[in-house]
Amino acid sequence: xxxxxxxxxxxxxxxxxxxxxxxxxxxxxxxxxxxxxxxxxxxxxxxxxxxxxxxxxxxxxxxxxxxxxxxxxxxxxxxxxxxxxxx
Length: 87
Description:
The protein is mainly α. It is 66% helix and 0% strand.
């Protein structure tokens, strides 16, 4: 990255707008009970792109590349939703 671009990047990190959004995102991450592996895509976007219903989308976004659940709570939520239709 050119030095001038680096300086602009650092300036951006110091903007009040960036700091406010960063703090808000940090609070949201602290509330997460388990990891979400869908990246920046929402559930709806992931479901649409993969032509999946909500329950299979949940499984896709809460398992690793080998199909292992990222957290026991995520797995239990899936089992409950998949077998009863609600949590």
